[in-house]
Amino acid sequence: MRLGLRLMALNSALFCICLAALPAAADGGFSHRDDLTADDKARISRVLAPPAEFDRPERFEPMQGGAGTSTRRPSRDAFSHANANLSFEEQHDFKVGNGLFKKLWTSSPSSTRASDGLGPLYNARSCQGCHLKDGRGRPPLPGEKAVSLFLRLSIPPQSDAQKKALAAKEILRVPEPTYGGQFQAFAVHGLAGEGRFDIETEDIVVPLGGGETAVLQKPVYRIRDLGFGEMHPDTLISPRVAPPMIGLGLLQAIHPGDIQSLADPEDVDGDGISGKVSRVRDPATGDLTVGRFGWKASNPTIRAQTAGAFSGDIGISTPDLPDNFGDCTDAQAACRAMPHGAQEDLGVSEAPDPVMELVTFYSENLAVPTRRDFDDTDVLAGKQVFYETGCVACHRPKYVTSRNADNPAHRFQLIWPYTDLLLHDMGEGLADHRPVGDANGREWRTPPLWGIGMTEAVNGHTRFLHDGRARNLLEAVLWHGGEARAARDKVAAMAPDRRRALIRFLESL
User: Fold this and answer.
1) Coil, helix or strand at residue 149
2) Over 127-194, what HEC string results?
3) Which one of 55, 274, 399, 445 has the fewest CB atoms closer than 10 angstroms to its CB?
4) Distances from the Cα of 446 to the Cα of 301, 384, 421, 437, 440, angstroms
5) Are 328 and 317 contacting, i.e. CB atoms less than 8 angstroms apart?
């Protein structure tokens, strides 16, 4: 632990020294950064420049999460450590938030009055139930009920009022009239769940360079045993696995101008990449802002994402989303007739502040683990492949966070998340044909890659992409289409040793 603290402190100090040593020339394209001085901009442009050679690691590269990077020995708990640069008081809040994140909620009425209000419909009884070990969800095994994979539901707008609400970003999608925005298989005692769904797969054989082949499995979802009648005939369904929780506060601390500067929705530069910003309304202010969380970048803040998960996944009301019946719709009369956890002396919310504040703080401060094997010859060769094939066009390696971030621990940190947080057309193979806000049915937010190589150690599986269809990292790459098609085709065609080096690089993140 002392060694880890020394490494963290050294990283922070070296970053400052590095910036101080760099000459202050032009602003390096950071004119949008209103939080930086002219000297800052010039120096940061040098720090963020792509590598000129790949025979050695870049400075600070192992510390993916800046000074907050966890340098603890890799283990199954690798995603559950606090940012290393939190204050003593913040570490206390993190630990309390951790307890609330793991808390099992119960149905009402209950003798545990501060823990009741579950459901009535739900997908899990705790945040940890979906984000096991703060990591990545997976599709259910044969015979299991889905927990860390769920189905989003919506329908096309049916009225002018709904069209206007969508255009004004007052809503991002129209919920299915009976089953709401999410399909929930679990319910409290005395109430039936919404139903079940099965997953069938179709094999797709992909030829690879060097005479190798890969077999992709395309999932097909079939809903059955509906508990509240038929769904709308135009229901749109999108499966989602729970994403890993690490580094969220640092992603929130990326200056919005840095995200906007990467957008090229009309592909003006002609490189085939046309990422666009997701614009959503901040629930706290009502203002339009940059969406950066969720598979479709439909949430602007971690607090908004947390409130949505409490409501939709667990059926727990919060000050932000106060409906005590969660995702139960008016058409589900039996659901809305069930008791809930609102109590006169404890307030309307089943998870009032400080519960929401503490869970949000915990979610904002889960540390990114340090890189492994970053100086390995094969890993460096794989990094070169990652750059040469064009993966970095969307999976942008590094940023320096805003000096004005809410939490001092997140300010002015050199981080390596490998994402641009933009929406990209990923092709027909990954399309869910379900629009959400600015994201059409073929577009997804670029997911961060930091920590991806620890998935098996933390969660005991290697399932990737928005629905966990990819059984390993190579399959995840081969599913890329649309704007990523050219890079994907290069990977498929390259010699096997280069392909293996690319995977070794991804496993080191």
Assistant:
1) strand
2) HHHHCHHHCCCCCCCCCCCCCCEEEEEEECCCCHHHHHHHHCCCCCCECECCCECEECCEECCCCCCC
3) 55
4) 17, 20, 5, 16, 14
5) no
Residue 34 CA to residue 30 CA, distance in Å, equals 9
Q: What rounded mean pLDDT belongs to the chain?
A: 93
**Residue 469 φ/ψ, nearest 5 degrees:** -70, -35
pTM over 0.90: yes
- For 342-364, how does the pLDDT look when each residue is reduced to its tens digit (9 = 90+)? 877 777 899 998 999 999 999 99
DSSP-derived secondary structure letter, 39: H
Burial class of residue 287, CB neighbours in 10 A (0-12, 13-18, 19+): exposed
Cα 194 off chain centre by: 26
Confidence of residue 144 (pLDDT cuts 50, 70, 90): confident
For residue 385, give both structure tokens. 């492949």
Alpha-carbon distances of 59 from 33, 62, 287, 502, rounded to whole Å: 23, 8, 38, 21
- Map residue 478 onto helix, strand or coil: helix
Evaluate if residue 84 carries a pLDDT over 60: yes
Structure tokens at 398: 């590094």
Peptide bond into 354 cis (omega under 30): yes
Dihedral of CA 18/20/25/27: which sign? positive
Q: Return d(Cα 343, Cα 345) in angstroms, integer.
A: 6
- The helix/strand/coil state of 213 is strand
Record the tokens describing residue 152, joined without a space.
Answer: 């989003």
For residue 160, give both structure tokens. Answer: 């002018």
Question: What's the maximum distance between 2 C-alpha atoms anywhere in the chain?
Answer: 70
The answer to whether the CB of 7 falls within 8 A of the CB of 31 is: no
| Cα–Cα dist 242/149, whole Å | 6
CA distance 244 to 334: 34
How far apart are the C-alpha atoms of 444 and 95, rounded to whole Å?
Answer: 33
